[in-house]
Amino acid sequence: MESIVVGSFTPSVLLDVAASTGRLAEHDLVVTEVPVGSSPGQFRSLLTGELDVALTSPDNVLAYRFSPANPLGALLDARILGAVDRGLGLGLYAAPGRSAADLRGATVGVDVPTSGFALAMYALGDSLGLSRDDYDLVALGSTPMRLAALLAGECTATMLNAGNELAAEAAGCVRLAGVSEVCGPYLGTVVAVTGDAHVAAGSRLSAADRHGLRDPRRRADRGGRRSGLTPARPRRRARRPLRRAAPRPGRGAGGRRRGRRGLADDAGAAADDLPAGPGRSRRRRPRRRAA
Q1: Which of 5, 61, 64, 160 could form a disulfide bond with 164, CB atoms 3.0-4.6 angstroms apart?
Q2: Using CA atoms, how far apart are residues 29 and 19, in angstroms rounded to an integer?
Q3: Of residues 252 and 172, more confidently modeled
Q4: Looking at residues 159-174, what average pLDDT do you find?
C-alpha cells in the first residue's frame, strides 16, 4: 500500500465513496485528506511536499502552469491526471428570502475574484440580468468558508457545491441559477500533481474516483451525511439513473435538462467524457513533513 496526502477545498464525496467501497485498497492506496483554504496554499503545499496530490479546479492548474502572474509568481510543472466531476450541483445561492433582484448593491462572496468559480458566477449573474458592477465582491476562501459566511449573513449570495449546497437549501437558502443549466458542459474538479514523483499514485487515485462516479445512490448518501443531512433526503435526489450519452450545452447526460440538484448526476457525466488518469481515507489538518 502507498500512502498519499491529498489536499481538497471541500471534503471529497467521491474520495469517501472510493474508500468505503474498497476501491482505494484495490488501487493500493491509503489516502489522508487534508483541507486547504486557497489555491495558492494548495499549490505551495504541492511544491513543498506537504501535499502529494490535489483535488482542485482545472483553471488553477492552467494558471500555475502557464501564467507568470499567478499568486505564487512562478510557473510550476502542474499536471491534470484526470477529471472528477462536472461541478457537483454548483450554483449561485442567496440567503433565505432573497432573490436575484436583491443582489444589486449587495455583497457576493467568491473564493478569489479571478477563479474558475468566480468566472462561472459572473456568467450566472449575466443570465439573471446582473452585471459585475451591480454587486460588491468579497473574497471569502473555500466553499465551506463561503457557506458559513452566507449562513452568518456576511454575504448575500455565493457559489456552492459538493454537498455545501444541500446544507444551504436545508437552511432555507435560495438557488438562483445553476452552472449545468447556464455553462454546461462544465468541468468542476480534477486530480492534479506537480512534477513526476506522484504521477502514478495520482493516476490510480483518479481511477479509484471514477468507480465512485458509477454509484449515484452512495454518492448522494455520502454527500448528505457530510452536509449534516439525513440519508433519506440525498437518496431521493439520486433515483434518476445516469445516462451515458454526451450532453448538449445546458442539458444533463442523455439530453435531459439537469434538475436543481446535481450532486449525483454531474459527477457521473465526467466519468465517460474525460480520461482517467478502500484502503482508508481520513481527513486531518495539514502537517508539515519532516525534512
Answers
A1: 160
A2: 9
A3: 172
A4: 95
